[in-house]
């Protein structure tokens, strides 16, 4: 049996009637109100589900009263309680056990995936510490023989959901040790908190000794900065704590310090006029030049998620408290900024289309002086009547209207998106299925950039040609994010459809890294086979769909104190 509870209060419904566990319908459950909360040193409350202390609670120390859950809610809660049995996680894998938890026969792809995932394990001095990026021996390795922090996330979730937390703990502790290395690129010393992009285990046959070798961007193609690594690390620490109920890892002084170092980097004061985090190109999953510099949604959503996770994990001691206050302020500003300026739907698009420019002073409507002529042609057809999403980037006179899958899914999971916005994002995915899912889930970015724009934006990158790789390619790893977002918004049937598409091909194609083409029909030009996060992403998606209570490991409930004060989108009210 698996981890904690399901976070379902967000959009008011989690429709699970058609899931395997047939959890009936669960509505309006605020799990934070279901458990009593004993005082404890960490902010993460084991007794609460995947919720969090609200910002106002942090400042007042008092929980906010909430209405008593309905009897239906209580019934459902009992069911979840029965399913969940905190804190002992379940052990069931397609590898060890061909039957699923509910006695339904496991899909053959699941058994194959577990086998492949276990083959990808990397050991350090006898202990599993991560998974290799790809086990494809037929291709030139480049750095695919390393354990990437971001790639390990779905592997970690798969192991956690399968009741095997040790490897996750080992990974968290090993990467923490790497963080404390002195990091230099040429003569430039990197920030203390920087987490590596990847590491590998070196074996010395003479001394028979193993050492770790980390890459903080100094060997990476293009010398890109792994801004997302630290955020994923905090996310994983919370996922581990949530899933196992073991708070001792997060409470370790070295983990607390590691978190504070990451936070120091991203909360430091600078010249910025926005609460978003300024980044160089290639700083996240899209780790090549793709015009993702400035304030990309991928990083802002992860930043928001990491801040909220840190708030749960930081000890309220002298050092921790200082950060709690800074995080709280930043979260307020960040959520307002993102929800107001990154959000687009038909109404907002029409407003931008009619924007006046050169507005001065506080009364300006077009705050960033976006020139309507810069609106790309494709967006007028792409924007459905119903639905919306967070655009890729906002900065002076620049809006990147491209769709980024990871950022939008993380926005749903972290509750950066309001419940209405989350619903609108799912509506968009449904109405633009062909474009965003096609024949293989899911497009990392939509649409592709071509011709002159491709030359300028990518620097003529032959790997990122149109509808390939990061430039409109389809990445199976994104399945777990979509599935989690579907469960959170009460639309598991969308995930089921996407999983079926993937299932029809992944084994046959040997688990490629990505697919190419407008519909994702072709195995990617340079895609690695046996790409671990394609394998793990599929497993996590399957496990979540089978047992939605896993959602609590990866999602956070909405913080009522960050409810938006403005409502300007027609699609929100549908
Ligand atoms: C590619 C991906 C990156 C991933 C790496 C290893 O560079 O863009 O996100 O971490 O491969 O799989």
TrEMBL record:
EC primary class: hydrolase
Q: Write down the Pfam families for this protein, in alphabetical order.
A: Glyco_hydro_100
Q: Which GO terms describe its molecular function?
A: endo-alpha-N-acetylgalactosaminidase activity; sucrose alpha-glucosidase activity
Is Translocase there in the keyword field?
no
What's the EC number here? Answer: 3.2.1.26
Q: What keywords were assigned to this record?
A: Carbohydrate metabolism, Glycosidase, Hydrolase
Span list, region Disordered: 37-69
InterPro entries (UniProt xref)? 6-hairpin_glycosidase_sf (IPR008928), 6hp_glycosidase-like_sf (IPR012341), Glyco_hydro_100 (IPR024746)
Q: Which reaction does it catalyse?
A: Hydrolysis of terminal non-reducing beta-D-fructofuranoside residues in beta-D-fructofuranosides
Going by the entry's taxonomy, the superkingdom of the source organism is recorded as Eukaryota
Q: Which SUPFAM superfamilies match?
A: Six-hairpin glycosidases
Q: Which GO terms describe its biological process?
A: sucrose catabolic process
Q: Basic and acidic residues compositional bias: what residue ranges? A: 37-55
Name the family the entry cites: Belongs to the glycosyl hydrolase 100 family.
**Chain's role:** Invertase that cleaves sucrose into glucose and fructose.
Q: What is this protein called?
A: Alkaline/neutral invertase
């Amino acid at each position: 049996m698996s981890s904690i509870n399901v976070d379902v209060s967000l959009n008011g419904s989690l429709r699970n009637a058609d899931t395997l566990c047939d959890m009936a319908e669960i509505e309006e459950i605020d799990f934070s109100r279901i458990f009593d909360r004993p005082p404890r040193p960490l902010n993460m409350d084991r007794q609460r589900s995947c919720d969090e202390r609200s910002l106002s609670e942090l400042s007042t120390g008092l929980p906010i009263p909430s209405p008593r859950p309905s009897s239906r809610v209580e019934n459902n809660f009992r069911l979840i309680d029965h399913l969940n049995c905190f804190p002992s996680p379940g052990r069931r894998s397609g590898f060890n056990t061909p039957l699923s938890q509910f006695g339904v026969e496991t899909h053959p792809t699941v058994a194959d995936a577990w086998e492949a995932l276990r083959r990808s394990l990397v050991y350090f001095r006898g202990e599993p510490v991560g998974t290799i990026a790809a086990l494809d021996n037929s291709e030139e390795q480049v750095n695919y023989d390393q354990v990437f922090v971001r790639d390990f996330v779905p592997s970690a979730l798969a192991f956690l959901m399968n009741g095997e937390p040790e490897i996750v703990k080992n990974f968290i502790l090993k990467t923490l040790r790497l963080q404390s290395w002195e990091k230099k690129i040429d003569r430039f010393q990197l920030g203390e908190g920087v987490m590596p992009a990847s590491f590998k285990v070196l074996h010395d046959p003479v001394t028979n000794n193993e050492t770790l070798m980390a890459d903080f961007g100094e060997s990476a193609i293009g010398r890109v900065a792994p801004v997302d690594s630290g955020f994923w690390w905090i996310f994983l620490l919370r996922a581990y704590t949530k899933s196992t109920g073991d708070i001792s890892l997060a409470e370790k002084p070295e983990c607390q310090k590691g978190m504070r170092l990451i936070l120091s980097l991203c909360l430091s004061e600078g010249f910025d006029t926005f609460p978003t985090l300024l980044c160089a190109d290639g700083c996240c999953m899209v780790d090549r030049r793709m015009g993702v510099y400035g304030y990309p949604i991928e990083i802002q959503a992860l930043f928001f998620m990491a801040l909220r996770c840190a708030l749960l994990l930081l000890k309220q001691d002298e050092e921790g408290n200082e950060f709690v206050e800074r995080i709280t302020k930043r979260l307020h500003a960040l959520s307002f900024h993102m929800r107001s300026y990154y959000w687009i739907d038909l109404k907002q698009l029409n407003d931008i289309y009619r924007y006046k420019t050169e507005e001065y002073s506080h009364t300006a409507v077009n705050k960033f002086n976006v020139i309507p002529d810069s609106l790309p042609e494709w967006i007028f057809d792409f924007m459905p009547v119903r639905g919306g999403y967070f655009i890729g980037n906002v900065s002076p006179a620049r809006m990147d209207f491209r769709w980024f899958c990871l950022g939008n899914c993380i926005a749903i999971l972290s509750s950066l998106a309001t419940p209405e916005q989350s619903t609108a994002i799912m509506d968009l995915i449904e109405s633009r299925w062909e474009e965003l899912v096609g024949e293989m889930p899911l497009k990392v970015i939509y649409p592709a950039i071509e011709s002159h724009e491709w030359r300028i934006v990518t620097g003529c990158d032959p790997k990122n040609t149109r509808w390939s790789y990061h430039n409109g390619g389809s990445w199976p790893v994104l399945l777990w994010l979509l599935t989690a977002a579907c469960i959170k918004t009460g639309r598991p049937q969308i995930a089921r459809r996407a999983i079926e598409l993937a299932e029809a091909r992944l084994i046959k194609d040997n688990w490629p890294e990505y697919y190419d083409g407008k519909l994702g029909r072709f195995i990617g030009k340079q895609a690695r086979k046996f790409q671990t996060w394609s394998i793990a992403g599929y497993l996590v998606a399957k496990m979540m769909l089978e047992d939605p209570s896993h959602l609590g490991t990866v999602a956070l409930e909405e913080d009522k104190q960050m409810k938006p004060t403005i409502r300007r989108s027609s699609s929100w009210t549908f």
